[in-house]
Write a structure and sequence with these properties.
By secondary structure, this protein is an alpha+beta fold. The chain is built from 2 helices and 4 strands; from the N terminus they run E-E-E-E-H-H. It has one domain. The strands form 2 sheets. Strands 1-2 form a two-stranded antiparallel sheet. It is globular, with a radius of gyration of 12 Å. Bound molecules: zinc ion.
């Protein structure tokens, strides 16, 4: 049983707010010198279309 919060850095998908393991996800993009990780191709594309929107408002969890 692994404890993801101990030692392993989990990042937040800036589009949907999901926790993403940077070592596992193939969806990532470089923006202004920082790497952002995503849970899906969909979120990656959304971010790349309008990165400033997601960086300024933060993740939105859509139900
Ligand atoms: Zn996502």
């Amino acid at each position: 049983m692994k404890e993801p919060w101990r030692g392993i850095s989990v990042v937040v998908d800036p589009v949907c707010g999901m926790n993403v393991d940077p070592k596992k996800t193939p969806y990532k993009t470089l923006y202004k010198g920082k790497i952002y990780y995503f849970c899906s191709q969909h979120c990656k594309r959304m971010f790349e279309e309008n990165p400033e929107l997601y960086l300024s408002r933060g993740p939105q969890i859509e139900m």
